[in-house]
Amino acid sequence: MTTFALDADQQSFRDVVRQIAVDRIAPRAAEIDEKAEFPWDVKEVLASNGLLGLHVPEAYGGAGADTLTFALLVEEVARVCASSSVIPLVQKLGSVPLLVGASEEQKQAWFPRIASGEDLISYCISEAGAGSDPASMLTTARRDGDAYVLNGTKVWISMAGVSRLYTVLAKTDPDAGARGVSAFLVRADDPGFSVGKSEDKLGIKGSPTCQVHFDDCRIPADRLVGEEGKGFTYAMQAFDHTRLIVGAQAVGIAQGAIDFATGYMREREQFGKPIGSFQGLQFMLADMAMETEAARQLVYAAAAKADRGDA
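User: That's the sequence. What structure does it adopt?
Assistant: Structure tokens below.
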């Protein structure tokens, strides 16, 4: 496999983000997961450095960065704190359907606050009986004059309860399968919208994962994203843009584990010398590093292919 080389700008960006992560996020990482509380201070660090609008086009207040640069951001944050890495990842996931489907007027109205980090945005597609299969979802959106009325429940929604905005997939034509799915922008203060308790998880506890309920949730008709029946297309494009970013997150977590293990092997002594001097442990660490680097190269290559449009 050919090694993927970052260009000078990408290397510089990675170094800047790494320093921010080490100085401002890493010291909070253990406490964030121990208390299982959303790290608002970390969110502000990311926002103040322009990192929550990294993927948003410059025309709407963002940086207009490519997919590979965004992958570097998530990798470096995940390296020190998995919970914190969810913030930019979900910010992109929730906003991609708007990027690909919203009208120019909608983008001008919604994206400046998303790009600045003032508004966090979650993505609501999964249901208990449908997973990520939009064609099988039960949540509906019924047109009622100059509004839509949403009913249903979404599950496993990342950052639910802390986000102000929610991109929601719902059936506008229940009999049309995937072609009957539409996308909507729902606000946390819309009547009929509510968030359930956060799920108990093994990790990433500083990022809430909750059910989201729509009980006759009434929203203005101009919150329909794009056209009726196009939601499935927007959903698939959102996954195309973000699934590989989850890979970058996993690479960052793996690298963080290697960093921790390396430090421990240097400090821990047995039989009068650091355990890192024992070849058996060196073999294990070398295998970890090799497998992580292989995964990293795959993620970078996939991101570059996505940016070129030949994925």
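The mean pLDDT is 94.
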